[in-house]
Batch of 4 targets.
Target 1
Amino acid sequence: MNEDTNTFTRLRPRLQGIAYRMLGSAAEAEEVVQDAWLRWHGTEKGRLDSAKAWLVSVTTRLAIDRLRSAKAQREHYVGTWLPEPVMADSPATPEQIVERADDVSVAFLAMLERLAPEARAAFLLREVFDADYGEVADALGKTESACRQIVHRAKVQLQDERPRYVVPRETQLRLLRGFADAATRGEFGALKAMLAEDAQLIGDGGGKVPSFGVPLVGGRRIAQLYLATSLRYRGAVHFEAVTLNGEWGLLRFIDGALESAQAIETDGERIVRIHAQRNPDKLARIAAALGRELAATKLAPGVP
């Protein structure tokens, strides 16, 4: 492995992290990083002041272009668009746990959809990857002053949407396991007790499976839907707790096949929001990693 390849390999996790947070798709992020590699392979390294700055800039610009195209497509997306969840092992340290949960959670990536592509890039580079404004300016091809304004506006736009709770992982896992157990057994009272009164269920079926066009609000209504699933597929529903995007989440299986990946937010006492990814295209990588099949697409309308 030569020096150029070593340099790219060393920086690849950062490039992948930028691209995934920009696009909310692991597959598209890999394509962007591969495009960056091809450009890196063909450039004259001796003219570069910084390999890291060059690769970050190229990856960011490629991701911006890809996101612009994706946003046009998402305007015609059936139902609510949610990012593709990524299943991974837990981070090694408490600091890494907090960092990853804060900047790559499904809730955080869904929130970033509010931002235009350049604003999303500037915000991520500055607030997540700790780039200075000179680096942000180079990546976006703008002045530092303009980038400061972009980041400021993005922070204002998102300030009411940032996660409000910092919940210990063991507390989150205990709540998730209790919820999964109640959902498996079809215990309506226990389900309702674990959901906040104003809890939200946000689903993404991508037009491939039934889901909700708008968030379902209300702990009682959400509990009824989980009860309905338990009753309809009696004895066939199974949950597994896994790390999704740096936080504990649930995979739901029906007859042993993966049906959904559920990212769950809690306030430490009750569940306040569930992002349920049911689009088979966005579950394929998780199913393949587990060696499991995807559930049949013809489930009952309205099942979360």
Target 2
Amino acid sequence: MSDTAAPEISSLQEQIRIAEAKTAALPKADDAERGLTAALTAAGEVAKLQNNYRYLTPSVAADGGMLDTATSQSTLRNLIPYFAPSVHQSNLGPWYLLASDKDVAAGVGIPMSFNSGFEWVAQVPYLVNDDSTITVTWLAMETRTGAGEKPAVLAWARADYDLVRKAFVNIQTGTTATGEALKQEVKAP
């Protein structure tokens, strides 16, 4: 090997060692598939629970944007096991509420036929990250669209599913410009 090629060869050998180490650390194919299935199942349950918050919109509107913690407590209790203790409970409140849902009569209960104008949907994860996490995204999709219109994305949430802890970590949420204009404001108690 020549003196000019030695640094390049050394660098390539180091890159090969790093790639081999990362490959060895990745879960085996069966484990990765089980992890992706577990992440998708947990993500689907989180979407269902976030959708439960939609029923609180009339009471939030009636209380000037304040979320009654007593009425949201059961949904919060059901969400907590899906998230690592490092995720603060304030991040598990309603990720998004639609302002137009506030006009539903808030009597004793909202009928089961209640059709909110949006629904949280978990996106199918397809990749196991180097750190043994799976990034999962949820989208708040508009459900009432005009003929020929595509449903708009109103809000999003993203978290990493930790395959070791079997829980979500590092949660982020946000709204789109369309979603921001249609959003029911929720104030912290």
Target 3
Amino acid sequence: MRNAIPYGRQNITAEDLATVVATLQSDYLTQGPMIAAFEEAFAHYIGSKYAVAVANGTAALHLCTLALNVKPGQKVITTPITFAASANCVRYCGGEVVFADIDPQTYLIDYNSVAKLLEASPMGTYQGIIPVDFAGSAVDLEKFKALANKYNLWIIEDSCHSPGGFFVDSKGQPQNCGNGNFADLAIFSFHPVKHIASGEGGMVTTNDEKLYKKLLQLRTHGIVKSEDLYTNSIEFAGGDTQYPGWYMEMQDLGFNYRLTDFQAALGLSQLKRADEGIIRRRAIAKTYSEAFQNKSFIKGQSGVVEGHAYHLYIIEVEDRLGLYNYLRTQNIFAQIHYIPCHLMPYYRQFGWNEGDMPKAETYYKHCISLPMYPILTDEEQQFVIATIFSYYEKHQ
């Protein structure tokens, strides 16, 4: 039996290892210089003014909803085809999640579905939108920004799948996912199967200085260490003419959502290969797309899309369960992304039922994510394709 072929896999190089070891041998394991270095490099790569490194993508989402002051009962719109964290961050603040159906061609949240929700409710019913660059396909945020401006909404762009991805705006210019030109905040994940791996880890990007400073505070227990921000007196702090060096203030209820320096070191090292990884992912996608074109058992696929970052390559098929199980017998570990969030038991308690999101539910019945990662070899990919062909030759 050949070695396992998973749907995603990290690639750790000798340079990655050396960078992490050097950081482990340095004076700082946390709250040191590697954090700022990673943030600066990532902001430059994405094209945003600011970046804030955090513990993981879920922490990034939570900090965003906190920074935007989501309150109990406020309604926020997102897609049902995403990892649960995209919706859960609203619930962490007591907000109400409202799902909008997907576009069955792109698998992204459907602009028209969101527009209908907003048009059907009084102004002020909704506070924000969380579009997801699902599978690496970039949401056209220029369109959503115009909608958000009309209804006075904020936007959090969930870009966990799409560092290096982009959409083309109305002027023909590429707009990088997370660059802050249209969304108030954007988030990324550095989980091992993502484009950039740091074990765990996440990043928030923004062009808003006020939100940036709020994120820094909330990331570290709500604590500030700046004389310009202190509210207690110098005398109370224990100083004479100035605040003593030890002084700090907790001014908000924050969290310990910090990234370690050795994780940042790994992320920074991986970031150097980000463009190389995107090129390889797009080549793999092109091979899949050409192989499955005009095949009767293919009901839909990711295809070749400009600006797609290809965290996932998805096909839609009949007898998905049969194919999934057959691939596993051949040591190919495809995955399903995702079970619609609105039908998770937790969200069903709020009144969501089967039939509410028909396009998302139809997609779920047929979708399967194929192996997609830069170190997938040509031979391994051809084996995956041949195995899928073999299954349908036997079962059609």
Target 4
Amino acid sequence: MLTDMEVDKVTRRLRRIKGQVEGIERMVEDHRYCIEVLQQIGAVRAALYQVGMIMLESHSRSCVVEAIKKGNEDDAITELMGVYKSLHK
């Protein structure tokens, strides 16, 4: 579960990402050079990855720890690894 501070941090990042995506849309509409568009796509992907890592860390520190305390470590680790792998595709 995200703390209030983490929610603020993630929300700010997502708003910035939204602006970047809108910028990419304008670049495409303006027929900008493909490499410039691709660079911006890479920047958005990196920013989303960082948001995912914040979420993953928060989940690990709260939900996974709680599951382990309750004796559900195998399920928690399986779920965690599945999400981690999806972030690295």
